[in-house]
Amino acid sequence: MGRWSEIGRRLRYTGHLLWRSAVTPMLGTYQRPPLVMPDELGVTFIGHSSFLVQAAGQNLLFDPVFSTWLILLRRQRRPGVRVRDLPSIDIVLLSHAHMDHLDRSSLRRVVRATRRRSGRAPIAVVPTDVSDIVRGLGFSQVIELRWWESYATGDLTITHTPAKHWGTRWIMDGHRGYGGYFVEGGARRLYYSGDTAYFDGFQEIGARLRPEVALLPIGAYTPDSYRAVHTSPEDALCAFHDLGAEVMVPMHYGTFWLAEEPLEEPLPRLLASAERLGLGERMAVVAEGGTRIFRAAGRSLEDRQEAGSASAV
Question: Is residue 241 assigned to a domain?
Answer without folding.
Answer: yes
